[in-house]
Each structure stands twice: as C-alpha cells, then as structure tokens.
Please model this.
Amino acid sequence: MGSFSIWHWLIVLAIVVVVFGTKKLRNIGSDVGGAVKGFKDAVNEGKSTPALEEEAQGRTVENEVRQKEKQ
Model:
C-alpha cells in the first residue's frame, strides 16, 4: 500500500489522456510553462532593480551639487 508502481502511473496517465484529450493537455502545458516563465522574469526583474537604484543614488543632481559645494 506504500508507493505506486510504474504501472499505476501509466494507467492514471492513460485515463487522463482519454478524459481530457492530448490537445487540451498540450494547451495546459504551454499555459503552465508561460506562467513559470513570467514568474521567473518577474523575480529576476525584482533582483536587478535594487542594484540599479543603488548605482543611481550616487548620480543624482543633488549629490553632484553637494560634491561641488564641498570642493
């Protein structure tokens, strides 16, 4: 009663294909793939934004004026 064997999974897969059809399963797969890609892009965008903000903080007009006043 522990884990399922490969035959159990093949029977489940066959039933799913019969019920939903291959075209619908393909559409679901591409939708899930697109969602995962969008999520990864959003995560990577969130990571790169703070680095750009840190670089821009030293390059503001106010900071340049303050540095010239100090000299």
In short: The chain has a mean pLDDT of 79. The CA atoms of residues 17 and 24 lie 9 Å apart. The longest helix spans residues 22-57. DSSP finds three helices and no strands in the chain.
